[in-house]
Amino acid sequence: MTYLASFFTAPAASSGLTIRILGTLVFTAIAIFALSQAPTRSRRPIVATVTFFAGLFYVLFYLWPQPYDRKPNEIPLNSVEAVGFWLKDAQPVVSTFGNIIAGSMLGLGIFSLLSVHLRKFVKKQRDWQFSGILLLSMVAMAVIGYWNWIQKIAPGSPDLENVANWGFPQYANDFLFDGMLQQMDAAMFSIIAFYILSAAYRAFRIRSIEATILLSAALIMMLSLMGAVEYQTSELIRNISGNDPNGFINNFTLKEIATWMRTNLQNPSLRAVDFGVGIGALAMGLRLWLSLERGGVSA
Amino acid sequence: MQYYDTGWFGVFVTAMLTVFILFNISRAHRNSESLFIRRIPGLNAIDEAIGRATEMGRPVLMVPGIGGLNAISVQALNIFAHVTKTAARFSTPIRLCLADATVYTVAQEIIRDVYQKEGMIERFHSDSVQFVSDRQFAFAAGVAGMIYREKAAATFFLGEFYAESLIFAESANAVGAIQVAGTTQTTQTPFFIAACDYVLIGDEYYAASAYLTRSPVLVGSLIGQDWCKIAIAALILIGFATNSYQSTQLTSQAYDGKEWTPLAQPRHYLASETWSSLLFNPKSARDVKVERPLEPEQGGSQ
Amino acid sequence: MNYDFIKLTVGVLATIGLYSALYKETKLYRFFEHIFLGLAAGFTLVAVWTETLKPMWWDQMVGRTADGSEESVPGLWLFAILVPIGLLGYTVFSRKHNWMSRIPIGIILGLWAGQQVQVWWTRYGPQMSDSMVPIIPTTSQFRVPPTDGLPTEQIQAIASQLYVSQALSNIVLVFTVLSVLSYFFFSFELKSRLVKGVNLSGRWLLMIGFGAIFGSTVMGRFALVIDRMFFIWIEWFKEGILRIPG
Amino acid sequence: MNLLRLGKILQGVPRQALYTMLIVVASVPLFFRVEVPNSPDQPAIDLFVTLNTIPAERPVLVESDWTLSSRGESMGQMEALLRIMMRRNVKFVLYSGADPQAPQVARNVIRRINAERKRAGQPEYKKWVDWVDAGYYPDLAGLANAMATDIRRAFAGRQDTNERGSMQDIFRSPVLQNVKSISDVALLVNVHASGTIDILNERLYRRVPLASMCTGVMGPQSMPYYASGQLVGISVGLKGVYDLEQMMEYGVVGKSIRERPHPKTIVSSNHDEIVIQPFTGQKNYDRAARYYFSLHFAMTLMIVAIIAGNIGMILTRKPKRKGGQ
């Protein structure tokens, strides 16, 4: 961030930094308190303004002409470039805001989870034992996870990439995470294969024109993906055409058909859908940015 | 950077689309009656589904996808607010399962709001809106389990879905629920089509709230979106007309993405040499050199 | 019984436990489901600090002092404002101040909305220009001649021609894009039979696209279940229990 | 009447029965090794050719965005990618923008391939000297934007253990020392199971050649980028991996080349005068070759099930048929 106004920064581990940070916290606290006293009618405008400025950054970032060939610690030639420099330098910083704020709101989710399962467990409601198991494994994973992490970042700790240096927390973490969590992920993911089978069996009936189209397209794709089938059919066709590379029939190997379908039917149709979706997102983005949706979420 | 990257044309088109949308929104404010929206089958099914759930006295289950907080999940919640309103009137229990804490926050507020407005806040349980997990397949396992145990009678899967879409759809199918689904992820739509009763395809998803609420802003925006799509179609038509013409012409120069070099004998234009292609993929400015003073060393911040 | 084998075995048990839902929702499934949810939540609690807040917020805020190969990095004290803003979200449970939870929400949505404007063209511009294909053949030959063994300039010349077959394909391509696009017009009544026809064909072409996706996705999904079976039968059963190298 | 009963049966196969069949057909073939005949797709050929023709002195960025949940496809992709790069001695940077676990999963694969090289008597691919580990980036969009602006700033502050075992900035490593901007990078390969390639395309298109190695699911979503030239090559799912393994085994030649290194050598219709020799006598066929055989049985089951269901429906169809839904 060479050009980012150095006003916002202070040398690490300096008292100046600590004071500024604490000052900011105090200021924020006061501001929040003041905000909480805001009269009802001014609330919507407040939220709308905040939203607008958050969005404004990226819009400027897109519209403001930015210097192309720019090397570190160069000084802008004029004010236009100065803004461009600033936007570009600020972008990596701003792009983390969303994650940070979302991260600090995660507790809400955990709170919901706890409130549901603690109640079940304490009031011995249906399946309370399972809620107990959930809470238990949650605590275990969290404790082990932090224990392991603290050991990892501790100064002068041995290279924990190397299994030889592992202690209990590493093994426990590896067991819970690699041994169980990841495996359960894989299991749940692969379960989809079974559902795909039953769904296709149930739905792919030549009931209507649409269903028939869907079915035939899917069949062609599947067959073209079965290397053996694809290979045999093209062999067959090559024989029919008498190994003549110009043979017209060569256009009708499974792969040719599949590729043709993909390039001239699948990609374009999906592209068209995506145009619509993209426009929809753009429109919704504008509505949210400018807080146009009354009673909606944005404000 | 951007102008060198996209040329003026990209900025121009984006601006044009923006104007179309905003203009139509303001237009709709003035007269919202005369505006027409075509029927969207999936949405007429919503009330039917809730009605069925009421008869069976079983809950309505809703999932706004596993994406973070963005227009897609907001859109889903707007639709779910409508669903909840109907459900609340029939006093049908609802289950709203969330995979993101920020979306949970919004959902919590919207849904409580709905019950409040309907004057039956006592029917709003803390189980009605719950955060399940922010880990894709843990979420899938949790929601599937809930569908099985609570024997949901109607399920709504609207939002950003990925691989887990089929887990939900088939579990719901196994307990015989009516399913309304819609996603902006084209890669998942086919599975919803295969397993669900009603599916919102593509930006029918974005049209939904306009269709349900008929609020001028949404309807106007929807019309604006149509204008944008027409504009895109027009651009494509123009480009393909000029290309068709130009590809029949001969050129004596070849374009390598930077500059034109003379050819031994003339040939037809390549796709990369047509006007439209040059307009859409402007000359890369890698060879532009700017001389600027250097700032003294020290004190670069982060 | 070494550690790796125990770990493997637990993985297999977990897999079977979750698979049991395929038969019906049993206590076994419920057991593993809740372990799964618990572990996931626990992990999130760890990751939110170690992967998000620490590197993206704390480290940026406090900066870094110089050490050996690394020069120091000053701290961005302004970052101190961010987490309190996030904490405003917790007012959602308060009757009186819940509106304040919309401030962090507004910021997140605002940032997202702004990005839409930023990325629209880079994402869709090339898609548009790629749909602008020529349809007037420049030669009467039907299909592209095979170019095996030809010198480069001849191949170039062939590439610059538009053959009848290509022209036909391109017509299909453009028609597909436009008709599918037309299917998503919401604000017109479809009166003329032509428009109706285009619209309907748009929907059918869409179905071809979806069918094709379904077909090509099947491979991916089956690959995963095959991999699970490999994990159970080869890695665990054959190599783990029978001790036969795969 | 009998036909009617048959039809009812064919239409009403209980889902549990289908599931059991799938388990069987997915498991049994795993115990056999068969080379399935196959002809690689052009996108995969383009990827293979690119990987084999990029200058070995310029590094490759490998963005590994997959975890064990998609290991069935992505692990094969990763293995193939690493084998090709290591055999060509292409230096690479490993990082991830999708999941905190992705780097660890990728490291494990690298460790395994290295062990395999040791067994085959080839030199080990050394960390720091041949590849560096840039770890996980929680905000891919930000990273991609930063890369486009200034790659040294994008990866700033990332350290890795050098050959003397002390931590150093990765830009001091032999891999990255000559990289001043993104244009000094030969290629960015994204091994992904989610939509990360969209983010990369939006921000890095035309700044660095992009290639995708994705799961079958992401295929349709990524393929348009290949069609519109935003990707130099793409390998989709298990078939893609098998294509790569086959090309490693038999090599690839351009369409104007007459003599082939091997009778089964693959011909690329997008290239004229290239010859890519096969990696003869090395471990080319691996995971994909094995899974691909099972895959055929699973697919067959699927197709048979669909056909059976339709036959059943036709058999039980009432004389007066009702229209579509």
Give an account of the 3D structure.
The complex is a heterotetramer of chains A (299), B (302), C (246) and D (325). Chain B is 53% helix and 15% strand. Chain B has 302 residues and is an alpha/beta fold. In chain B, helix 1 (2-30) packs across helix 9 (216-246) and helix 3 (71-89) packs across helix 8 (204-213). Chain B is elongated. With 246 residues, chain C is an all-alpha fold. Chain C is 68% helix and 1% strand. Chain C has seven helices and one strand, in the order H-H-E-H-H-H-H-H. The longest helix of chain C has 49 residues, at 193-241. Chain D folds into two domains: 12-34 and 285-316; 36-250, Rossmann fold. In chain D, the strands form three sheets. In chain D, strands 3-2-1-6-7-8 form a six-stranded parallel sheet, sandwiched between helices. Chains A and C meet through strand 1, helix 1, helix 2, helix 3 and helix 4 of A and helix 1, helix 2, strand 1, helix 3 and helix 4 of C. Strand 1 of chain A pairs antiparallel with strand 1 of chain C.
What are the key terms here?
heterotetramer; B: 302 residues; alpha/beta; Rossmann fold; 2 domains; six-stranded parallel β-sheet; two-stranded antiparallel sheet; 10 helices; 8 strands; disordered C terminus; C: 246 residues; mainly alpha; 7 helices; 68% helix; 1% strand
| Helicity level of chain B | 40-55%
Helix residue percentage of chain C: 55-70%
**How many separate helices of chain C?**
7
Structural class per helix/strand content of chain C?
A: mainly alpha
Order of helices and strands of chain C: HHEHHHHH
Quickly give the structural class of chain B: alpha/beta
- The Cα radius of gyration of chain B reads 26 Å
Strand order of the largest sheet of chain B: 3-2-1-4-5-6
Question: Mind describing the biggest β-sheet of chain C?
Answer: none
Task: List unreliable stretches of 5+ residues of chain B.
Answer: 298-302
Specify the number of helices of chain B.
10
Shape of chain C: extended
Low-confidence stretches of chain C: none
Quaternary state, please? heterotetramer
Topology:
The complex is a heterotetramer of chains A (299), B (302), C (246) and D (325).
Chain B: H1 2-30, H2 41-56, E1 60-65, H3 71-89, E2 94-98, H4 101-117, E3 129-131, H5 136-150, E4 154-160, H6 165-174, E5 178-183, H7 189-195, E6 198-200, H8 204-213, H9 216-246, E7 250-255, E8 260-268, H10 275-280
Parallel strand pairs in B: 1-2, 1-4, 2-3, 4-5, 5-6
Antiparallel strand pairs in B: 7-8
Chain C: H1 3-19, H2 27-62, E1 75-76, H3 82-87, H4 102-131, H5 152-160, H6 164-183, H7 193-241
Chain D: H1 2-11, H2 15-27, H3 42-53, E1 60-65, H4 71-88, E2 92-96, H5 102-119, E3 131-136, H6 140-149, H7 151-154, E4 159-161, E5 167-169, E6 187-192, H8 196-204, E7 210-214, H9 219-227, E8 233-236, H10 237-250, E9 252-254, E10 266-268, E11 275-276, H11 287-316
Parallel strand pairs in D: 1-2, 1-6, 2-3, 6-7, 7-8, 9-10
Antiparallel strand pairs in D: 4-5, 9-11
